[in-house]
Amino acid sequence: MFTAIYRSFPRIHAWIASPVSINAPHSPYVHATSCSRAARGHRGARCGPSAAKAAFWDRIAPKYATDPIADMAGYRHTLQRVQAMLRPEHHVLELGCGTGITALQLAPLTRRYVATDVSSQMIAIAHARHAQQPTPALSFAVADAETHGFGQGLYDAVLAFNLLHLASDLELVLRVAAQALRPGGLLISKTPCIAEMNPLIGHVAVPLMRLVGQAPALKCLHEHQLQAAMAKQGLAVVISERHGTQRKDIRAFLVARKAD
């Protein structure tokens, strides 16, 4: 059994982290970055779980940046759905933007797009890609939704792709997202629902992967848990879809609206 689990590590890692490299040009990796002016006020000292999260993602950032997307069809479907929801006048906040591939594709459709991630190394790679593909509306910042605030009612949309299952405090992250949204704004999320996949993933494979430094802390969630957590923060789910196209890859695409 353990041999089979070990051999499945790459597939499980794709469910957990969903690397986002789309044949992107190789960029020089730098070791530090500052927040962009648009989000500099959200910076804060890292401590405790936030520091541990940052350390994990900093360490895997170079590999994450070059690994291919495991489910390209599912990714493209999600991208198309989100593109149809964004407007030229929109101010958008992305939580957990990784190396910025999605932000670079969505930002041109908006007036202002602030992309954030807990990992300074991820953001460094995102800055390098941004320099090769200048997008005036886009800015990147190092920020963790569990330790930072993003203001009150500043954004028309908050995006959280492959992020919510990684939150140590899901309620806090959703509260921060709800606060950042304007009345009527949308939280657009995509989350692997690991609890609806093979139960060995959450109870055996992930703990083993964490022991060898191959997985971060995460939650094994059902979609109904995500919807309930959103409702608790005044976010009503208006779209519920499944965007994983591979066998047993269950990813809930949820769009939740903040009350007017």
UniProtKB/TrEMBL annotation:
This is SAM-dependent methyltransferase. It comes from Ottowia oryzae. InterPro entries: Methyltransf_25, SAM-dependent_MTases_sf. Keywords: Methyltransferase, Transferase. It holds the Pfam family Methyltransf_25. GO terms for molecular function: methyltransferase activity. One of its GO terms (biological process) is methylation. CDD domains: AdoMet_MTases (cd02440). Residues 92-185 form the Methyltransferase domain.
